Amino acid sequence: MDSRYILEKPSVETRVSVSGADFICLAGRSVLHDSRVPSVEKSGPLPAYTNGPVFCKPVMDGGSATAGKSERSSPKGNRFSPGGRILHDMGKADLGDQKDTGPTGVLKRASPTHCAGISRQLSGGSMHLDIRNPWKQTAQGQNVPLTEIQPLPSTHIPVPRNRKPSGHADKEVMAATVLTSLSTSPLVLCPSSAPIGNFAVSEPSSRAWKEMLSASYSSSTSGNWSWDASDQSVPSTPSPPLTNDTNKNFLLSSHGDDVNEDVTESGHFMFEDPIPRKRKNSMKVMFKCLWKNCEKVLSTSSGIQRHIRTVHLGRNSESDYSDGEEDFYYSEIEVNMDSITEGLSSLTPTSPTTAGPPPVFPSPLTDVPHSEHINMNGSQSHAPTLLSQSAPSTLCHIRTDHAYQGHVTHVRTVSIGEKRQPATSTHTAVNKNHALITPAAKSTPGTRKPRGEAKKCRKVYGMEKKDMWCTACRWKKACQRFTD
DNA sequence: AGTGCCGGGCT
DNA sequence: AGCCCGGCACT
């Protein structure tokens, strides 16, 4: 098949052969701006970035590129059924002998939902959030704005009854995650320049995949750090990092086992690849719930699936059973950790070298006034982007309010107008750093940091409600609740 | 004048 | 470490 760049061919359909099943990836025309985006089939490493949405649709082995069309015009008119049905059917047909086919999740990863998130964008320093789900279309093939799509009741979504539940699904998810990660880290993939289409059946590669998958899977069973725009909560986060290392710290310190998963993943890649590298732009794949009015974003697919399963589908949260239906309700998004970090770094003026993540991420993910640091491509205007919506007036962060009290951490959810603070432990460290830095600043009089514009506790609560002030304000220290 | 918070002292 | 406050910078 043609391995030209998408730019050269508006409707590039890239067939990826995995375990005997073919996947056709369609590159959206609207995003055909980056000639750096090679088709997946191109021999050699996967593209580090696929600029713009890449729509993937699974087709049966031997199926034609037009399969998608016929699928979409499914007489059932279920806008989800085409891709999903085919996908699942394929899963049954082709995944019968999973031990030989390698990571079955790879196949699943190629599901439309996932592929939608493969899109990446290289806009400098900007966070890319592409929550487009190409499969959310009407039976007539018309695109429908996500916001207009009412998630169908689970009972309306045809799901193969004999799907293998729980663990298996998670494996698939993990495999999908790995695939996504690989697509992000080109060098990690096929160091031997094995054609993508063959790597699934290549013995060494297959084994490596299995190992990675098993390890990744075993390390990610629960605890997904997340922030949920819908409930206005944001994970508590450590101080913002300035370096990638700090980014990692950010993740580690703020996301517990989720972090482990992330670390595990990257760790595998690190081991697999002798050449140290960092993800360009420090892009991190997140999973966004597409359920209407739900902006839940999780770091792992299993997490988002669990979220959807328990919150939206009303299934038993205790059960890991998954019929894959959740796949339809979330998509991947790319989060530029660097951007987040940048935004976060400004969170704590006195901690220029502290660590933190996203959100990013995170945690250090967001600082309300600094949301502009994170540009979400694709939804420039509204769209509750991860961070852009964290306006002071609507912000609700989990934070520690008494950093000055050291270990006496007291986490609480703060409402309206309160900014998220870094985790207490980290923050304490920050203060220490600040203490160390202060003397130097002292030597240069006149460098006193400008007063922040944010209202502080005094202004917000007034003297009469001094008991509501943050500890720092009460002690006439730099306000920790309304940071600049 | 009001506010933010550094620096330092006290417990 | 927690707490408090004088005093300065800034608005």
Automatic annotation (TrEMBL):
Lineage: Eukaryota, Metazoa, Chordata, Craniata, Vertebrata
Keywords: DNA-binding, Metal-binding, Nucleus, Transcription, Transcription regulation, Zinc, Zinc-finger
GO biological process entries: regulation of transcription by RNA polymerase II
Low complexity bias: start-end ranges: 220-230
Entries under InterPro entries matching the protein: CR1/CR2-DNA-binding_regulator, Znf_C2H2_type
Protein source organism: Mastacembelus armatus (zig-zag eel)
Region (Disordered): 60-112, 220-243
GO cellular component: nucleus
Entry's localization field: Nucleus
Highest taxon listed in the record's lineage: Eukaryota
This protein's name: SLC2A4 regulator
